[in-house]
Design brief:
- It is a single chain.
- The chain has 185 residues and is an alpha/beta fold.
- Helix content is 28%, strand content 21%.
- It is built from six helices and nine strands.
- A hairpin with a 5-residue loop joins strand 8 and strand 9.
- The longest helix is centred in the N-terminal third of the chain and has 11 residues.
Length: 185
């Protein structure tokens, strides 16, 4: 009898519309398939967060984001110059980017991660995934597998074990149109 790896299981859960807690560059994140409205609604409930906040989409490679964004050539060049890496870009959303991801705005925040386990999760899921810190609004995020399990094991479909990357703060956020820093790292 073969055993399914935690990574394969987490990828399957995302593909099937579930919610996963997983390590990112600096904290554990909560993620799901960006087109699964019910899964996004679960994350909003877990976090006690408003829909208007929007979400970051995390990807293993730029192509996983193509369906959700419409950058100019200059914006694409700017983004690709920092990826993979800990820079999130706010860029024009495509018509396929749902309002529950954009928060009702004409833009969406996206990142191609260099964090090996987060990237592997995106590959296992076969898509970019929703990425938001694993915490309730106003509370500190989980930074270890144990913290993620203690806080979220009953609320998510699985906790992908692993260590967060070496960043102490959330990733930098920049505007793709002009490169302006919107949130410093």
């Amino acid at each position: 009898m073969s055993r399914v790896s935690p990574l394969s299981r987490a990828g399957r859960i995302i593909r099937e519309g579930g919610v996963v807690a997983y390590p990112t560059e600096s904290v554990f994140g909560l993620g799901c398939h960006p087109l699964e409205a019910d899964a996004v609604a679960r994350i909003l409930t877990i976090k006690k967060r408003a829909l208007e906040s929007g979400f970051i989409l995390l990807a293993a490679e730029p192509g996983q984001l193509d369906e959700f964004i419409r950058p100019s050539a200059e914006e694409r060049s700017r983004m690709l110059g920092s990826w993979p890496g800990p820079v999130t870009w706010v860029v024009t959303a495509s018509a396929a980017a749902p309002a529950w991801i954009t928060g009702g705005r004409a833009t969406v925040a996206v990142r191609v991660t260099a964090e090996p386990l987060a990237a592997a999760l995106c590959r296992a899921a076969g898509t970019a995934i929703v990425s938001t810190s694993a915490n309730r609004s106003g509370r500190p995020p989980a930074r270890t597998t144990l913290q993620a399990r203690r806080r979220f094991a009953q609320l998510v479909d699985t906790v992908l074990p692993g260590a967060v990357g070496g960043y102490a703060r959330p990733t930098e956020i920049r505007c793709a149109s002009d490169g302006k820093v919107l949130r410093a790292a």
